């Protein structure tokens, strides 16, 4: 058996978008019986919500689609960029903030890297908005997770957005 592959989802607060990335991909990994091969975590670029569970609104929307969001918020560290095989930023500001930790990191991608051009480039921040925002977060993450899993498993995956980054 090859060594497990690891992925870290990153957003601003680590209470809405990145916990959803973690929960949705974990669900897919369990459906496919790949728990021994894939390790998943999430973090935020700010530590403001450190130790908090995912936002109740996000948990409720996720739970309606069958996902349990179990993460506790933590701030990303420089060590994360070394430790994780793949780091996925939810929006371009998150990407810039991650790259400001280590501008030479080569394992950081936008979530939309794993989506075709019909999707927006950023996963919109749902925190100050209404119910639609939380549904959009789930729609984008559900659409991207199969390609993210393929990438982690080393299967050939040509990003439709490769030329945009
Ligand atoms: P997230 O959402 O980055 O998807 O976890 C947010 C959570 C908290 C805040 C902003 C966005 N905040 O300003 O506290």
TrEMBL record:
Top-rank EC class of the record's enzyme: hydrolase
Active site positions, chain numbering: 11 (nucleophile), 17, 125 (proton donor)
GO molecular-function term, one example from the UniProt record: protein tyrosine phosphatase activity
EC number(s) recorded for this UniProt protein: 3.1.3.48
Alphabetically ordered keywords of this record: Hydrolase, Protein phosphatase
InterPro entries, A to Z: LMW-PTP, Ptyr_pPase, Ptyr_pPase_sf, Tyr_phospatase_low_mol_wt
Domain called Phosphotyrosine protein phosphatase I: residue spans: 5-151
Protein family per UniProt: Belongs to the low molecular weight phosphotyrosine protein phosphatase family.
Protein name: Low molecular weight protein-tyrosine-phosphatase YfkJ
Taxonomic source organism: Mariniblastus fucicola
Gene field: yfkJ
